[in-house]
Amino acid sequence: MDAGKTLEGVGKVGFVGAGNMAQAIGGALLRTGLLKASNIYVSSPSNTNKGPWIQFGTHTTTENGCVVENSDVIFLAMKPIYLDAALMDIKNTLKQPVSNKLFVSLLAGVPLKVLEEKIHRIVPDARVIRVMPNTPVLVGAGCSVFSCGTTATKKDAEVVKMMLSTGGICQEISESLIDAAGGLSGCGPAYVYLIIEALSDGAVKMGVPRAMATQFASQTVLGAAKMVLETGKHPGQLKDEVCSPGGTTICGIHALEKGGVRSTLMEAVEAATKRAAELGKNK
Ligand SMILES: NC(=O)c1ccc[n+]([C@@H]2O[C@H](COP(=O)([O-])OP(=O)(O)OC[C@H]3O[C@@H](n4cnc5c(N)ncnc54)[C@H](OP(=O)(O)O)[C@@H]3O)[C@@H](O)[C@H]2O)c1
């Protein structure tokens, strides 16, 4: 976040859906002091995910309309299959018509056109932005991308960028790229958790205690990512630099290549991207 910037003039922020992604973004907003807990409204049908919000001190409710009424910026943070139910609940629990609201969708796959059409049935002048965040937002190392709907303003884009930047990097991209970006960064933490777990398993197999192995695997992934980001070198060059002729690393690389790691990771991003498009089509 730019030093000195605040959410002045934006006011209150709501989350319709209280789960992992909402908690990651809400947690980042609170941790960095961009928002006070008293300026956050959260709704979900059950109490399953309300515990952390109650601890934060935010307002919680089961009525989605209450969140919309009280907030200037409303994050839609339910799974795509629950979008229609969530919007219906907004409609049914709004006590009066509302206007001048910015809706920010976190839903994988659901296009801006569909979001605008559905949201405008309830809040006709709503502005809409579509975001694809990831859960490392919670620890300040997130990677979020967003695209603006037809009536979203430059200020709306700035506000969303400022909010998401409290939890890492955030960039505006063309909507045509958002499913693919999500297939990488939105889903990517899960791919990397699996890789960390497997690296840890390898070290455990070779006699390293589990806790130590997981810590070393995680730090290694973090370190390699920082090397790519901070040196600006191509990952292939960095790989070459640590592969001594006849050494240990090139033997490890050979094992990875035999297992098809590159192709498998490419296929993971492709599969997730296609699934996002499918989820969007079903809406
Ligand atoms: N998790 C990620 O890494 C990630 C990354 C990028 C994008 N996203 C997107 O973020 C969205 C949320 O994902 P998540 O992982 O946070 O899911 P989650 O942990 O399952 O949370 C979903 C939340 O939506 C609530 N909900 C369900 N039906 C609702 C309704 N009718 N009205 C209001 N709230 C409702 C659930 O309520 P209960 O608490 O009562 O069950 C829950 O609090 C998804 O659309 C996903 O595509 C997630």
- Terminus-to-terminus distance: 34 Å
Give, in spatial order, the strands making up the sheet with the most strands. Answer: 3-2-1-4-5-6-7-8
On the 0-100 scale, what is the average pLDDT?
A: 94
**CATH C-level of the largest domain:** Alpha Beta
CATH topology of the largest domain: Rossmann fold
Q: Unreliable stretches, pLDDT < 50, 5 or more residues? A: 1-6
Main sheet attributes: strand count, strand direction, barrel closure: 8 strands, mixed
Chart the SSEs and their pairings.
Blueprint (H helix, E strand, L loop, with lengths): L12 E4 L3 H12 L8 E4 L7 H6 L2 E3 L2 H7 L2 E4 L6 H11 L8 E4 L6 H9 L6 E6 L9 E7 L5 H12 L2 E5 L5 H9 L1 H18 L4 H22 L3 H7 L6 H11 L2 H21 L2
Parallel strand pairs: 1-2, 1-4, 2-3, 4-5, 5-6, 7-8
Antiparallel strand pairs: 6-7
The structure holds NADP nicotinamide-adenine-dinucleotide phosphate.
What does this structure look like?
The structure is a single chain. With 283 residues, this protein is an alpha/beta fold. It folds into two domains: 13-177, NAD(P)-binding Rossmann-like Domain (Rossmann fold); 188-281, ProC C-terminal domain-like fold, CATH 1.10.3730.10. The chain is 51% helix and 13% strand. The protein is built from twelve helices and eight strands. The chain has helices at 20-31, 51-56, 64-70, 83-93, 112-120, 154-165, 178-186, 188-205, 210-231, 235-241, 248-258, 261-281; strands at residues 13-16, 40-43, 59-61, 73-76, 102-105, 127-132, 142-148, 168-172. It has an eight-stranded mixed β-sheet with strand order 3-2-1-4-5-6-7-8, with helices on both faces. Strand 4 (73-76), helix 4 and strand 5 form a beta-alpha-beta unit. It is elongated. The protein starts with 12 loop residues before the first strand and ends with a helix. The model is unreliable at 1-6 (pLDDT under 50). Bound molecules: NADP nicotinamide-adenine-dinucleotide phosphate. NADP nicotinamide-adenine-dinucleotide phosphate is lined by residues 16-22, 43-46, 48-49, 64, 77-80, 82, 85-86, 89, 106-108, 132-135, 186.
